[in-house]
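so my prof wants the structure for this chain in the tokens format not the other one, which i didnt know existed until like an hour ago. anyway here's the sequence
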Amino acid sequence: MLHLSFFPLIMLLLAATLGAAFPQDALKKSCSLFKYQFLVPHELKAMQKMKEQFEDIMLLSDRKCNTRVFHRKWSSAELSVPDRVMLVEAELDLTTAMLALPANPTFTEMRQRPLAFLTQAQEDLRGCMAMEAPSHQPSRKLRHWLQKLQIAKKTETAGCLEASAILHLFQVLNDLRCAALREQCT
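here's what i got, hopefully its the right format
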């Protein structure tokens, strides 16, 4: 009976020993975007529901937008992995900023789950950028797109940027999936 009381003590010592062998800082410094390769269906459903509600709101408004920020003649699959990560980081910066804007209470509630998911993805990407390629210079293709994005942020209304970000949400998610894949993606 006495040997059973030693089991928790042995487990505690083993955990302490393994904790010392693998410092927490080393574990935090790994960069894994694996969880974004296949998105959970309830996350996709929440984003689809938000996008559909936004489209309904757009039908009722007379907002005219000329922004074509997300329109490109190339796909993220054509970029190097560090370029893909930079692209998605810029897309997520815009999208999370637009989802954080004030909206009517119903739509604000609808945005919460997608905003939380995208904010977490944004944090994960920033961690990867800092570790894997802190001094990476974007390709000419990406650099041109990033400049176009900066111009749009200065010249377009917040409403038009919001519309563009929400209407192209699934393109951003696909680019995130592509960045999570370390090899070719389609």
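also thought this was worth mentioning. The domain at 34-184 is CATH 1.20.1250.60 (Growth Hormone; Chain: A;).
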